[in-house]
Amino acid sequence: MFKVRQDEPDYAFIPEVEVPDVNRYGKKIQLVDQHDDLAGKSLNINGDPSISDSPNRYKQHGFYFNADNCISCHACESACSEKNDLPPHLAFRSVGYVEGGTYPNYARLNISMACNHCDDPVCLKGCPTRAYTKFAEYGAVLQDPDICFGCGYCTWVCPYNAPQLDTTKGHVQKCNMCVDRLEVGLKPACASACLAGALDFGVIETTPENRDQLKTQIPGFPDPEISHPNIRFQQTKSLPREMTRPDNIPVRYERDEQGQNGFNTKVRGNGGKPEWNLGKLRSREDPLVIFTLITQTVVGAFLILYLGPKFGLGELTVGAHPVLYPSLLLALLGIQTFALALSTMHLGKPHRFYRAFNNLRYSPVSREIAGIAVFYNLLGVYTLLSALPVLFGWQPSSLINGLLSIVGWCAVIAGPVALYFMYRIYRIKARPFWNHWQVLTAFYGNMLALGGMIVLLVYGAVLVSQTHSITHLGSSLSALIATGLLIEMIGLFFHARDLEHQGGEAAASHYRQRTTYGKTYIARNIGLALTLAATLLLAVSGLDGIAGYTGWVLAGMLMTAVAVVGRSLFYVLVIPTTMPGAFFWHNPGFQEHARETGLAEMAQVGVVTDKH
Amino acid sequence: MARQADKILNDLERAVFQSVYRSRTQRLRRITAIQILLLKHITGGLLFLWPLYVILLAVLLTPVTSRHLIYLLALLPGLLVWFYIHISGAREDYRQHVRNHILGKGFIKDLFRKS
Amino acid sequence: MLFGRDKKNPIKIADKGVIEWKYTTCGYCSTGCSIEVGLNDKGEAVASRGVGGADVNRGKLCLKGIFEHELFRLPGRGKTPLMRDKHYDPFRKTGWDEALDKVASEIKRIQAQHGRDSFAIVSTGQIMTEEFYTLGKLARGVIGTNNYDGNTTLCMASAVSGYKRSFGSDGPPGCYDDFEHTECLLAIGSNLPEQHPIIFWRLRLALEKRKFPIIVIDPRVTMFAQMADIHLPITPGTDLVLLNSLAHVILEEGLEDRAYIEAHTSNYDEFSKLVKQYDPLTASRICGIDEDTIRNVARTYAKAGAAMTIWTMGINQSTHGSDGVVGINNLNLITGNIGKPGGTSLSITGQSNAMGTREWSSCSGLPGYRALESEQDRSDIAQFWGIDPEFFPKKRGLFQTDIFPAIEAGRIKGLWLIATNPMTSMTNTSRIRKILEKLDFLVVQDAYEDVETNEYSHVYLPAAVWAEKEGCFTNTERRVNLTRNVIKPNADSKSDLWIFSQMAKRFEQGQKMHFPETAEAVFEELRTLSKGRMLDYSGMSYDKIEQQRGIQWPCTDGNETGTPRLYSDGKFQHADGKAKLIPLPFVDNNERPDKEYPFWLNSGRVVEHFHTRTRTGKVGNINKFSPTPYMEMNPDAARELGIEHGNYARLTSRRGDAVVMVQLTQRVPPDMVFIPFHYHECVNRLALGLLDPHSRQPAFKQCAVHIAPATDQQSAAIRNKAARAY
C-alpha cells in the first residue's frame, strides 16, 4: 500500500461527500455492487495483494478543473511526471492554453488535461491488443504497457491526447489515476500538487470545495459526446470573443453570440499561400502509406484474376498463360508479404504482432488485421493449389478444382471485407479529416484502379512480347480502372466540400490542404484527372503494341505517384481534436523545428529525435 | 512461476537464490525453456506466415536458374525480418518469465499458458 | 458494464524504492520551501516532496522543487579542480592542494603588486549562511579586499538600500501570514504566480477564505495581472511617479494615518512638500495610468484596514529601484501599514539565500547587519575574529556592478567568482566578455564546470551543490531553515565551506584565526554574533529549526517560535527610533524608445527556469516547457514588420544584437517586447543596465531595441542552437 505520511495535509485527501446515483449521461456512478464478483478484489499494484476498504472504491471518480484559477505553473504535470518517473518527452498530464483579447484587455485560459477515464473509453474499444481495462475500482481506465504492441491506435482515437506513444520504448503509457494513492484515500499526485485551486479530484458529479460550476465544456475541449469524459470544468470569467492557440494548429475558437458561453471551433488564418512541402509528406505513418496501397492493389488484382475469366476475359485464365498466371499470384503473395512485414515493423513491438486479434469484439484494427490475415491465407492456399501442381498432382483434379473455386470465392469475399474494416479504422470522431465516407471510396477506388493496372501491365508485357494484341484486355480493364478513379474523385470532391461545411479541425485540415500542401494537393487532383483521361484515351484509341503498352506504363506510373502522394497527404493532414498545446510543449510546429535544427538532440528539450 | 530475483532484498536470500539458479537442473530447464519459446514463436509465426514459405517452396521446386537465385535473394530480407520478429518474441518471453526466475516443475505448461 | 481483460497482470506503477526521507530547504528561490529528499536503498536521491507540516509550503512544491533531487546527477557537474595558464589554453585536471595553492599565491601576488583591493570577490545568493559568513571572514578578515560583493546586487540591492533608507536597517518587516489579514494587496512588478508559485498559493489560500482586492502594477499582462481586480499597465520605469501620486491623493484627501505618522516617522514636511507636485493629472501624463484610476487605487489602499505591498524585480531592477522601495515604504508609513498583521512592505526575494548573504556575508559591511562605517562594529568583529580592527576598511568598497567597470579600467586584476554566472546574468554581455578576458587571474567556483563564465577562468573549483552539504538559508519572511546533508558531494567536489576554510589556511593571518570545520559549529558563531541584535539567532539550533520547519528571526535565547513581523512596536533602527519619510523627485534617465530603436525591451522570469539555467536547463521535465529563448511580441506590431509566430527575429540595440524566436501575444503592448532573462547569449546582449545611484542595481528591464525579421531563418536557427550548450 502507498504510505500516507503523518503530516499529510488535509487537502490531499479525497473528501467524503454525498454522491448522486447517476451522472449527467444517465450512467450509474456506483459501477458495481459491493457484492458483485468484481468487487472486493485486490488491484494487485506492483504485486501487492492488499485490498482497500475505501468507501467509494466502486464509484466513478474524475477530475475537476477550474479554468478561472489555473496559472499554468506546471506543478500538476511535474508532480505526475515525478511520480510516474517519466522521461521528458512523455507526459500523462499536460497544460496547454488559448488566449485572446487586445492589450491590456488580454485573457489567457490555461487547460490542464490528462486522461478523463471516460464512461465510454474509445481507447479501450480501439485497442487491438486489449491492453486497456476499465476497472470497477474508481472507474479508472488503465493501460498495460506489457500487453501493448505500440500500434498507437489509441493515440489516434483519444480526443484528449491521453495515451502517450513512447517511440523510444515502442509502447503506449498513460495516466493511471494514481490508483495507488486512491487506495489509501489520497487524491492523485497532480490534484494534490495544484498551486492555484484549479485542479481537484473526487467522485464524479460532486462539487468540490470552493467550486460552483460543473460544466462539461470549455473552449478548446473536444465534444464530450465522443466518450463521456469524467472531467468537470468551472469557467465563469468572461472571455474574449475570439481565442487562439499558441501552437501551430490553424484553429481558433469563436464565441457563439447566441449560445451561452459556447465556443465554436473555426479555422485560423486565411492568408496562406499554396506551397509544395513535398519533404513534409514523410511521416511516422509512411509504412502505412505503402501497406494500405499494396493491400488494396493485391485485393484488386486478385479479384480481377479470379473473376476476369468468368466475365469473358479469356486472357486471364490459367490455360491461356500457364506460367504467367501462377507467377503473378506468387508475386502478389510476395508483395503482400512485404506489406505485412512493413506494417508489422511499424509497430513499436513487432514481435507482439499476434496480439492484434485480441479485440475482435470492439477494435476495427483487430478486425482489419484479421480480415487481411484471412485474405492473405486464402490467397496463399489458392496460390499453392494453382502454382504448385507438382505437390498435388496425385490428387483427382476435380478435388483440386473444387477446392480452388471454394478458396477463390472465399478470397474474393474476404478481400473487400478486409478493406472495409481497413476503412472503419479511420472513422474516428477525434480525427474529423478522416471521419468521412471518402476514405471508403478511396480504398475501393484504389483497389479497382491499382489492381486493374497491375494486371494490365503484367499481362500486357507478355502479350506484347508475344506480339498479341492488348486492346481487348486494355479496354476491358480500363473500365474497371476508370471506375476506380472516378469513385475516388467523387469521394474527394464531397470530402473537400464537407470539410469546409463542417468547420473546426476538419476545415483546419482542409486549410492546410489548400495552403501548406496546396500545390501538392492541386497537383494530385490534376494527376488523378490526367490518369482518368489517359485511361479513357488509351482504351478508346485502340493503340496497340509497343506504343499502346508504353502508354499504359506511363499511365500506371502516373497513377502510382498520384496514389502515393494522395495517401501521404491523407496521413499528414489530419488534425486531431486534441487539446491546445503551449508555445513549446505539445506544439507540433516546434517539435518539427527542434528535429530539423537539431535542438531535439538534447534530451532535455523533450522532443524525440527519430520520427520512426 | 516461482521466485524472482529482483524481489529479494537481503543478501543471504540472494546468495541462496544464486546457488539454486546456477544449479544444473535449473540450467537444463532454462535451455529447454529457450527451445520451447523458440518453437512456440516460430510455429505461431508459421500460422500467419506460411504463404511466405509457399513462395520459397515454389522457387525451390522449379529448376534452379540465375533468375531464381534473384527471387531467393529478394525473399531473404522478408525471411530475415520475420525471423527477427520471432526471436524478439522469444527473447521477451525469456526475459519476463525465465531469466532471474527459478523454474518450477510445471514450467513447460506455464510457458505456454503465460506468455 | 466494465470492459477489459478478465485475467489482468498486476498494475505496474513506478516505485522509486524510497527507504529514507531527509529534511532540506529548497535551493532555488527565496520562498524557503521545506523539501524532503527520498533516498533509495543504494543511497541515491530519487524523489522530492514538500514537507506536509512546514508552514511555508504545507506539503506543496513548485515544478522546480518537484524535480530538485535530479540536481545531484545533472550533466556538467565539476569533478576535479581544473587549471590553465591562459583562458584560451585547454584545462588540465589537478588536485585540490595544487589548485588552492595556485589561487592563494595569485591573490598574494596581485595584492602585492597592485594593492589589496586589486583582487575582487563576487559571490552569490545560493550558498549556505554558514558559508557566506565564512567567506566574509576570509574576504574581510584574511584576504582583506574591499572589493567584495554578491550577485544579489542584480536582484535585491534596491530592496536592501530602500529598507535601510526608510527603516534604518535591512530586513523585510512582513511575512506570508500577512495575506491572511490584509484587506488590500498591491503588487508592483511582481509576477507572483510565475516567480514564486508557492507564495502565490499562500495568497490563493487566503483569498479562498476571504476576498480582498488585488491590485497589480505591471506593464505586461502577467498571469498575476490577469487575475487582479485592478491591473495598472504602467509605462516602464515610471513607478516612482505613480507611488508619489498615490501618496499625493492620500494626503490631499486626508486618508493618511496621522497618528502613526506623528508617532513613528520623521521628515514628514519635506516629504509632503514633494508629493504635492505629483497630482494625478501630472502623474498620468508620465506613467500612463489615468487620474481616476490613480485616485481609485489610492483610496482603496488607504481605506483598507490593513494593506500590504509586495514587489520584486519590476521595482528593484530600475534606475530608481531604491527610490521605488522607499516610495513603497512611504506609502505604507503614511497609511500606518508597517508591522501590523496584513500591513507591510514585503520584498519578495529571488535567490534561496539572498537574505543570508545580506545578513552574514559581510559583502556590504560586517556580519549581522553591521557596518564598516561604524567603529563599534569594526572593533566588535575584529575582536571576535582575533584580528586588528585597523585591518578593516572604514567604508564599503565597490558593488558587483562597479567591480566589472573597475576591471575594465584596469584597477582590478584578479577576480574570484562564487556560484554566479555574469556571462549570462549581467547586462551588455559582450562587454562582460571583454572584461573577463582582461583579467590576469579568474577563479570560478561553481557546482557546474559548464557554467558559461568558466570560459574565461584560470582555475575552476568544483563545488558541492545544495544538499550535498549542510547549512541554513533565510527566506523572504526572515525564516531561517535548514538543509541536512542528503548525499555526499559529487566526485571530488567540495563544500564551499571547506574551500573557504582551506583557502584561509594558506594565508598567514588565516592560520591565526579559527575557521570551524562543520557548518553547525559556524552556526554557533552566528548565534553569538547575533545575540541582542535585530536579527537575533540566539534562540535557534539546528534541531529546533528542523523540528519547527524553520524559525523567523528575531528569535532571542529562550524564545521558542521566532517573530513573524518586525517593527510591530513602531520602533525603527534609525538613531531617532523613527522611520524616515523621504522625498523622491523623479528623474527620467532611461533609454526610451525612439525612431531608431522603437521598442521597449522588458525582461523577466518564467516559472520553469531558475536564473541562468545552469540547473533547470538540464532537467528535462522542467526545461521542456521553454527549451530555447523566445520573445513575446504584440501581433499588431509584428504584422507591420512582417514577423511571424514561431519564426526568428533579430533585435538590435545600442549594445549589440540577439536572435530570438517570436511568440505573438497580446500580453505585451505594441511598443514593447518581453524576453526571459535566463538564456545565454540572448536578452542581456541587448540590455543597457543603467545603475541605480543608491543600490548600484542595473535597470535590466528598461531599454530600447530595433526589431526586424531574421532574413535567413535557417541561419538564425543555427545561431540560436549554437548558444545552447544546455
**N-to-C CA distance of chain C:** 50 Å
Question: What's the story with the biggest beta sheet of chain C?
Answer: 7 strands, mixed
| Overall number of strands of chain A | 12
User: What is the CATH fold-level name of the largest domain in chain A?
Assistant: Formate dehydrogenase/DMSO reductase fold
Tally of extended strands of chain C?
26
- List SSEs of chain A in N-to-C order: EHEEHEEHEEHHEEEEEHHHHHHHHHHH
Average pLDDT level of chain C: 95
In what order do the strands lie side by side in the largest sheet of chain C? 5-4-16-15-14-6-7
Radius of gyration of CA atoms of chain C, rounded to a whole number: 25 Å
Query: Can you count the helices of chain C?
Result: 26
Classify the fold: give the CATH topology of the largest domain in chain C.
Rossmann fold
Strand content of chain C: 15-25%
Biggest interface pair, residues each?
A-C, 87 and 72 residues
CATH architecture of the largest domain in chain C: 3-Layer(aba) Sandwich
Low-confidence sequence ranges of chain A:
none
User: Structural class per helix/strand content of chain C?
Assistant: alpha/beta
Give the N-terminus to C-terminus distance of chain A in angstroms: 39 Å
Highest-level CATH class of the largest domain in chain C:
Alpha Beta
Give the proportion of residues in helices of chain C. Answer: 25-40%
- From the spread of the alpha carbons, the general shape of chain A counts as globular
Please bin the fraction of helical residues of chain A. 40-55%
